[in-house]
Amino acid sequence: MLTAAIVTAAVFGVAKVVRDWLILRQVRAAMDAGTAQDRVRIGLRLAEALGGGQSGASPEPPAGEGVTPPR
C-alpha cells in the first residue's frame, strides 16, 4: 500500500514537471516571436497565473470587467 502511494506521488510529480516544461516552452516561443509590448503582457499574465501580485496598474483590464480607481 505504501509502495503504491509512493509510486502514485512520483507519477504525479513527473507529470507536473512535464506539464510545466511544456507550458514554459510555449511561453518562451511566444516571447521570442512577440513585440516588446507582447512580452510585457505575457510576463504580466504569467506572473498572475503563478500567483504573483502586481505592483502597479494592469495595462488592460480583463474582458468584461470595469476598472474602478482606488479611493
Sheet bearing the most strands, described? none
The Cα radius of gyration reads: 18 Å
Head-to-tail CA distance between termini: 57 Å
What is the percentage of strand-forming residues?
A: under 5%
- List the secondary-structure elements in sequence, H or E: HH
Total strands: the figure is 0
Bin the helical content. 55-70%
Number of helices: 2
Q: Give the class from helix and strand content and strand pairing.
A: mainly alpha
Mean pLDDT: 80
Shape: elongated
The parts where pLDDT drops under 50 for at least 5 residues are: none
Description:
- The chain has 71 residues and is mainly α.
- The protein is 65% helix and 0% strand.
- It contains 2 helices and no strands.
- It has helices at residues 2-33, 36-49.
- The longest helix is centred in the N-terminal third of the chain and has 32 residues, at 2-33.
- It is elongated and about 50 Å long.
Give descriptors for this structure.
71 residues, mainly alpha, 2 helices, 0% strand
Map the helices and strands.
Elements lengths: L1 H32 L2 H14 L22
Short description:
With 71 residues, the chain is an all-alpha fold. It has two helices and no strands. The model has no long low-confidence stretch (mean pLDDT 80).
